[in-house]
Amino acid sequence: MSTGNVELAARPTVGVKSGLKAFLARYFYFCMSLVFAGLVVWGFSKTVDTNLFHANPPRPMLLWFHGAAFSTWVVFFIVQSSLVRVRKVSIHRTLGWFGAGLATAMVVLGFTVAVVMGRFDTVVLHQKDADAFLAIPFYDMIAFSACIAFAIYLRKTPDFHRRLMIIASCSLMDAAVGRFDFIFNHSLFFPVLDLLILLGVARDLVVDGAVHKVYYYTLPLLVVGQSLSVYLWRANPDWWQGIAHPILGL
Fold it and tell me: C-alpha distances in angstroms, 62 versus 14, 31, 124, 242?
């Protein structure tokens, strides 16, 4: 085969790679926002009717506000990703302060609902280990709030800001993917979240040729926190019961 033919044969592969790189550079964060929305709709559609809309006994009213706030976050993330995509950065920045307030409310609601529902599940529904499960939503809120706080602090450094926002949003998705029995029963919701974050790592490798350092800083800490929270839930050591029971008023 001549050199010219070899070059012609290689061009489709190069074109595919460059096309993927261009697509990921332009649309990755917007696509991730749609993935989050899809996971939330898919996951909660399995349980929202029996666990909220037509729950028996009825769930605490606070759970409705919690659901509304977290659903608003998904919509907010889609809107913000869209604004960046269409280069409406000034609107994106202004709306960002609404997001900061929403995130603050979500953290307060997240901790509060974790306690309220932990007590409800234990006292009213008599669920086993509902007290130990408190470790999971508490960790979620710690991870989310830490990432959001750094994202706000680094809002003028877009390459850090956008990745921290993705990681923060990923940290909320265990509530959605945990609606699938196999994932929940085998404690696989955190590995699923890590896979979502690794999509960001893959994006950097394709687009930038290197992994952004924000992933090097956050991923090890996330894995440690995830492992500890699952241990507290599944093993439920005495010292954790000594913390969880007073929090839940048991």
Answer: 54, 31, 16, 26
The two three-digit tokens of residue 246, written as one number: 């007073």
Q: How many CA atoms does the CB half-sphere of 120 hold within 13 Å? A: 16
Q: In whole angstroms, give the CA distance from residue 245 to residue 24.
A: 47
Contact 206, 24 (CB under 8 A): yes
Contact between 169 and 124 under an 8 Å Cβ cutoff? The reply is no
Which burial class, exposed, middle or buried, applies to 224 when counting CB atoms under 10 A from its CB (0-12, 13-18, 19+)? exposed
Asked whether the whole model's pTM tops 0.85, one would answer yes
| Token pair recorded at residue 57 | 């006994």
Q: What angle do CA 215, 218, 220 make, to 5 degrees?
A: 100
Residue carrying the six token digits 């994006």: 203
Q: How many beta carbons lie within 10 A of that of residue 5, not counting itself?
A: 9
pLDDT tens column, 127-186? 988 999 999 999 999 999 999 999 999 999 999 999 999 999 999 999 999 999 999 999
Of 79, 221, 213, residue with least CA distance to 146: 221
Gyration radius of the chain's alpha carbons: 21
